[in-house]
Amino acid sequence: MIEGHGDDLYRYNNIKMNFSSNIYAGTDLIALEDYLCTRMDVVRSYPEPSAASLEQMIAHECGISPDEVMVTSGAVDAIYLIAQVYRNEGICRIMQPTFREYEDACRVFGYQEREDGALCWLCNPNNPTGDVMAVEEVLALAKRHRLLIVDQSYEDYTMAPLLQPADVVDRDDIILLHSMTKRYAVPGLRLGYITASGRVISRLREQYRPWAINALSLEAGKWLVQRGETAIPDLTSYLAETQRLRTMLNEIDGIEAQQTQTNFFLCTISQTTAAELKDYLALEHGILIRDASNFTGLTPQHFRIATQSPAENDALVTAIRFFLNKQQ
Fold first, then answer.
1. Which of 106, 118, 132, 232 could form a disulfide with 146, with the two C-beta atoms 3.0–4.6 Å apart?
2. Residues 6+ apart with CB under 8 A from 150
3. Euclidean distance between CA atoms 227 and 310, whole angstroms
4. CB under 8 Å to 138, separation ≥6 — which residues?
5. pLDDT tens for each residue of 289-326
6. Which residues contact 106 (CB under 8 A, 6 or more apart)?
């Protein structure tokens, strides 16, 4: 899915507040930028074929073997790889509404989507709803399918309990996806990783291309893991601000903000469409939201927002109130 995603600032010229991307916007990346400036020499040589040094660091952090970790060029890269490797299964189940790339990857490799699919795709925490499935429910879901792929890209954006890599490396029916993009707020680097049993990882490696991780991304990944700091310095306060924003939006007639366990959530607008609201906010206020109508199962009235600073959140609420007052 190239068109219709969040963070599409390129469509507008004056965006000052970006609610369309779920990635935390307040991270200070100056130290990383300074470090990479000292390592530009690495672009003169080929990187490691399989990012083994970064995999070893991640494995140590997770308390598992390096044979149970595989670094990919972002979580989306992992999604397409898994769909490719298991394409002979032919049938998949996707827990909708959710991230469109599972559906797109399965279509590319010829899957049919059915409830009894051998493969099941679960985004947990889920994009776009912000829901989190309890660990016991995830394990129960795994029993109903040959392979459960759990995308935990937003695991650092919730306080709800989730599966850990050590929980799945002794079994062949669950794969976990992780996003360094989200964890460290570095979407341009395209870094993610898979944790699974050594047997599953070995099967994936057989069909993965060499040199998938460029040298600068590899240097950045090792530096970030070694530092051990995630993008959000105070998750408790950030999620509390999310609930404050939800409360303010639910006080507006014509807006319903749904519950969430993360920093982002779905809303519906009753008087018009999300596309019309999005264009108005972008063009008149420099505020960008995510039109969520292209998620399977959602409607033209659905939009998604991710919490920003208190001042920006107040500005969004004021702008939406103004828009709806004009509609009356």
1. 118
2. 122, 124, 138, 163, 174, 175, 176, 177
3. 28
4. 122, 124, 148, 150, 163
5. 999 999 999 999 999 999 999 999 999 999 999 999 98
6. 83, 92, 94, 113, 119, 121
Alpha-carbon distances, residue 230 vs 154, 174, 257, 287 (angstroms): 12, 25, 27, 26
Residue position matching structure tokens 């033209």 = 300
Q: Which helix (H) or strand (E) holds 155?
A: none
Q: How far apart are CA 85 and CA 147, in angstroms?
A: 12
Rounded distance between C-alpha atoms, residue 251 and residue 254, angstroms: 9
For the record, the structure tokens of 102 come out as 């599972």
User: Are the C-beta atoms of 28 and 307 separated by less than 8 Å?
Assistant: no
As a whole number of angstroms, the distance between CA 255 and CA 241 comes to 18
Residue 5 has a pLDDT of 61
Element holding 52 (H helix, E strand): helix 52-62
- Residue 210 C-alpha from the chain's centroid: 24
SS3 assignment, position 113: strand
Question: Cα separation of 163 and 142, whole Å?
Answer: 12
- Please state whether the peptide bond connecting residue 125 to the residue before it is cis, i.e. omega within 30 degrees of 0: yes
> What gap in Å lies between CA 115 and CA 84, rounded to an integer?
20
* Residue 2: pLDDT over 60: no
- 97 prior amide bond cis, ω within 30: yes
Whether pTM > 0.90 for this model: the answer is yes
Residue 106: strand pairing partners? none
Entry field: residues in the chain: 328
